[in-house]
Design goal:
29% of the residues lie in helices and 26% in strands. Helix 4 packs antiparallel against helix 17. By secondary structure, it is of the alpha+beta class. The termini are far apart. It contains 18 helices and 33 strands. A hairpin with a 4-residue loop joins strand 27 and strand 28. Its main location: cytoplasm. It comes from Novosphingobium indicum. Its EC number is 3.1.13.1.
């Protein structure tokens, strides 16, 4: 018998080892692996170290491979803490690569003693088990943090040594670079640690280019948060085939004769929704909300579906959109563009004169959008009396819906939204607070009505629903709010039923704007975070008993699932198979059996997108302000801690820290309940909502961090890093050593 051919010289890869163990007819340990791959001498020692790493990564249990598969976890595996929920740690498998792209299970860690000794980001070797209520695990050993990629800027010191200055403001030190990978000083790169120590050197894995170029701020967020932003060739090919699928006019309701209008932002590229209404002759209205029929093109189990599920939602940055769907679908075939025949899911509503929805029905339809209008244009036509009948009817119907909304009394918080405008070269031309128009409210109330109708329509058929859940504030947060309100001489009785209207009345009765801002911030902090789930817990903020997201399937996977459930529940048109594109456009068996897993996954994706979008705006604001370091701004305090307070520039945004060390020689005491810093000698206080003039001391576009100092007196803010000589790189000045403390000089140079 001829000797078995060795797969390849040197150590096998992790995948080769896993494939061998999985297919081995007998238990495979280090000896069997070494024999299989022909390893000898020093290679066996290297194999032992590799297997130890794989064990710590949860790929193997030290004896035999324990694969992460749908429906099971290894009995002993490595978990990563992703959340702390009321003192208990919640974790996911540190390594999760299932064949079907299913989301990782969320596992509750059972620790001895009270409270969690673990924190978010920790890696723990744990023993897992599945119970009737889900997965749980028992920690065995806390492990070192796994080597992860770091985003930063290359710096070269006077001795010629390379350093990586991280862009994440939470990382306080630079790392020595052992391998530049072709990167040059001043370039933005991805790098990974070499070795296991906290001060390990790093090697560059990818060069991203100029750190202060317009595209870099969003790229930083994309890489930092691991947002998928490249579609595979297979996904793009399937999208091209799906885009060519013909619509069956005979099987769809033909609504092309209705003058349906899409009202969207002026720069919108994808149009999910369009609306129409007309009086019904009985004091009420017939209304239609036409939503892009994405489920017709994106079938469960296909390549597009797997990628959309993984992304969870589109992510919107000032300079780009990371779409949930390929562009041929999101910006073309699925987008409700004016003048083109489009597939739509139609929500028909009967609305009475008081704004109450009396009846609804859902159909698959063909629509031809009469016009796509920007919010500002629609508002101007109404205000100037130049609106056509279809637009006037929308406003008349909305006034009825607004009347019903007022009676429902949802939570009303004035939360300004910053908008970054870029010029043709991608440079910031303006940062302003987005104006809130009636046109926004019109579309919003039509969408809310359709979302409620979708949830109730599925409930009527006892069908699966992915609800949009916003729970009542927890007692813990309400107690904290009660204690805070007491510092203003106001009371909050916890024995009563807590409703959004309770908070609205509290805010309405406050005449002083500064105090109102304080209370509004506190009410906002008391709210829970909305999420997706298969159990109906209501929507507290909107004061609704049943609510689901139905109106944006181009950009949210949750809406796509609701569409599929409606297709199943109401036996809407099921298209014919097209080549390798699945026939069904309803829910898959997997999602039908366990909506909880996908709901958790898309909730996590939503939080990831929100953090990435917010951080990117912060970087743009810091870049915008880098030319104005030294100027004094009107600010409002947004947060207070024992180490200082955070303030935001009125009308612009951008939170910055005022360290307590810069407030002078006076000792300050922190009142945790009142969120106030008080000076022991002078009695000077700093509290949330307070307005004061502050000088901008530092603006760092790479981290998005700002620092302020008092206009008069106090200490000085020391910039992070040490001053460095500058050199020209493209259109920017970059340091040969030290992180961008140089950005202040750069801004002044430009000015």
């Amino acid at each position: 018998m001829a000797p078995k051919k060795r797969p390849a010289p040197g150590l096998p890869t992790r995948k080769q080892i896993l494939d061998f163990i999985q297919n081995s007819p007998v238990p495979a340990g280090k000896r069997e692996i070494a024999r299989e791959f022909g390893l000898k001498g020093q290679e066996k020692i290297q194999l032992k170290a590799l297997l130890k790493d794989m064990s710590e990564e949860g790929l193997i249990d030290g004896k035999r491979t324990a694969f992460h598969k749908m429906g099971g976890l290894p009995k002993v595996t490595v978990l990563r803490i992703v959340d702390i929920d009321e003192g208990e740690a919640i974790a996911v498998p540190d390594t999760w690569q299932p064949e079907d792209a299913s989301p990782p299970p969320r596992i509750r860690l059972i620790e001895k003693g009270r409270g969690s000794a673990l924190k978010k980001g920790d890696r723990v070797l744990s023993r897992t088990e599945e119970s009737n209520t889900g997965w749980r695990a028992y920690p065995m050993k806390k492990l070192a943090l796994r080597s992860e990629q770091v985003l930063g800027v290359i710096e070269i010191d006077k001795a010629g040594k390379a350093w990586l200055a991280p862009v994440d403001k939470r990382i306080r030190h630079s790392s020595a670079v052992s391998d530049l990978g072709g990167a040059e000083a001043g370039e933005l790169v991805l790098a990974e640690p070499v070795g296991r120590s906290a001060r390990a050197s790093v090697k560059v894995t990818e060069v991203l280019g100029e750190p202060l170029a317009a595209k870099s701020f969003s790229l930083i967020a994309i890489h930092k948060h691991g947002i998928p932003n490249v579609f595979s060739e297979e996904t793009l090919a399937e999208a091209e085939r799906a885009a060519k699928m013909p619509l069956s006019v005979e099987k769809r309701e033909d609504l092309r004769h209705l003058p349906i209008i899409a009202i969207d932002p002026s720069d919108a590229r994808d149009h999910d929704d369009a609306i129409w209404a007309e009086p019904d002759g009985e004091g009420g209205f017939d209304a239609l909300i036409a939503i892009a029929d994405v489920s017709f093109y994106v079938r469960p189990g296909g390549e597009i579906d797997r990628e959309a599920r993984r992304r969870g939602n589109s992510v919107y940055f000032p300079d780009r959109v990371v779409s949930m769907l390929p562009e041929v679908l999101s910006a073309d075939v699925c987008s409700l563009r004016a003048g083109d025949d489009r597939a739509a899911m139609a929500c028909h509503l009967k609305i009475d004169g008081e704004g109450k929805v009396k009846d609804w029905r859902f159909t698959r339809a063909i629509v031809r959008i009469h016009e796509v209008i920007a919010y500002e244009e629609a508002q101007a036509r109404i205000d100037e009396g130049k609106a056509e009948a279809n637009l006037q009817n929308l406003w008349a119907c909305w006034k009825a819906l607004a009347h019903a909304r007022k009676k429902r009394d949802p939570l009303e918080l004035e939360l300004p939204e910053r908008r970054v405008k870029l010029d043709e070269q991608g440079r910031i031309s303006e940062i302003a607070i987005r104006e809130r128009l009636d046109a926004h409210r019109v579309v919003e109330d039509f969408m809310i009505a359709a979302n409620v109708a979708a949830a109730k329509a599925l409930e009527a058929k006892v069908a699966p629903v992915v609800y949009r859940v916003h729970e009542t504030p927890s007692r813990e947060k309400l107690v904290a709010l009660k204690d805070y309100l007491a510092t203003f001489g106001k009371s909050l009785a916890l024995g009563q039923v807590i409703t959004p209207g309770l908070f609205n009345r509290m805010l309405k009765d406050i005449g002083d704007e500064a105090e109102k801002a304080l209370i509004m911030e506190a009410v906002l902090r008391s709210q829970t975070q909305a999420y997706y789930g298969p159990r109906n817990e209501g929507h507290f903020g909107l004061a609704l008993g049943s609510y689901a997201h139905f109106t944006s399937p181009i950009r949210r996977y949750a809406d796509l699932l609701v569409h599929r459930a409606l297709v199943d529940a109401y036996h809407l048109e099921q298209p014919k198979p097209q080549g390798d594109i699945p026939a069904t456009s309803g829910l898959s068996d997997r999602d039908r059996d366990d909506l909880g897993k996908v709901s958790d996954a898309i909730s996590q994706a939503e939080r990831r997108a929100m953090e990435a979008e917010r951080e990117t705006i912060d970087r743009y604001v810091a870049a915008w302000l880098s030319a104005r370091v030294g100027e004094v701004f009107e600010t409002r305090i947004t947060g207070v801690q024992k180490f200082g307070f955070f303030a935001t520039i009125v009308g612009l945004g951008g939170d910055g820290l005022v360290p307590v060390s810069t407030l002078g020689d006076e000792r300050f005491h922190y009142d945790e309940k009142a969120h106030v810093l008080s000076g022991d000698d002078t009695g000077t206080t700093y509290s949330i909502g307070q307005f004061l003039r502050l000088r901008l001391a530092e603006a760092n576009p790479l981290t998005g961090a700002l620092k302020f100092e008092l206009e008069q007196g106090g200490g000085r803010v020391e910039p992070r890093g040490r001053p460095v000589p500058l050199k020209k790189r493209g259109n920017h000045m970059v340091g040969q050593r030290g992180r961008p403390s140089n950005i202040r000089h750069q801004g002044r140079k430009k000015r």
